[in-house]
Amino acid sequence: MKKFIVSFKESGLRLDKALSVLNPALSRSYIASILKEGKILVNNKREKASYKVKENDEIILEDIPISKSDIKKEDIPLDIVYEDDDILIINKPQGMVVHPANVYSSGTLVNALLYREDKLSTINGVVRPGIVHRLDKDTSGLLCVAKNDNAHQFLSRQLQNRTMSREYIALVRGVIKENSGTIEMPIGRDPKNRQKMAALKEGKPAITNFVVLKRYQEHTLVKCQLVSGRTHQIRVHLSTIGYPIEGDSLYVGKGYDKLYKKGQLLTAYKLKLIHPSTKKEMVFEIDIPQYFNEVLKTLE
Length: 300
Description:
Layout: E1 2-5, H1 15-22, H2 28-36, E2 40-42, E3 45-46, E4 58-61, E5 80-83, E6 87-92, H3 109-116, E7 140-146, H4 149-160, E8 165-173, E9 180-184, E10 187-189, E11 197-199, E12 207-215, E13 219-226, H5 233-240, H6 249-252, E14 266-274, E15 281-285, H7 290-299
Parallel strand pairs: 7-14
Antiparallel strand pairs: 1-4, 2-3, 2-4, 5-6, 6-7, 8-13, 8-14, 9-12, 10-11, 12-13, 14-15
């Protein structure tokens, strides 16, 4: 379910047009389909596409259930770091969405998993089989997939009690003077831009630890460790303290020359967890991707 509040800027627009303004990621065809399904409420009432929205109207988009048959099995190559009967550790490439959503129905990690695997956990439903945690589309790196419900529950508890460790490497704009630090800021949906998250007092608690690895003339290479795990957490935290991740157009903003134009330079390079069956600690680590290293070479 998605919720929007109409501002003065959208007031007077048709409902379908207002939705495309409030959330540019929604295609016209998708908006038309959910209107047809009666899955849009305005102030808790069903409205037609022609309805003229008013300031402070509350628009709710109800989820359209997707059945397993709706998700295509696609033969997409995956970089498997580790696999056994309980878990898969995957090195997700930059540009791949983790699971199907309103805008992305194919080419996702889930499409690839369904082609490759006969058994995946069912706890997160048919749209997110096996998915224990996610990475943003343009964040690369290690991601854990559960093959059965027992493994999923065990791994989820580790996320909740913070015994699963996830470490990232990021290149940020600006030179950080401190050698290390902790960013503790609650995070919630940005009321001015529904595509973004923001540091908000009323948001959910979020903590990120960081260590400086290397300083360049106008950039800093940092290692970040998630204590909590919120949507866009590292991107929001670093941007809020004045060091946005290079290439991240969503949180850097317009009017600057990017060193890299295909997304944020952020990779999940290290993952530590307790195995669901053996109960032994496992640590997985990958190298910085080639595209990331090529940018770093230009800064030397």
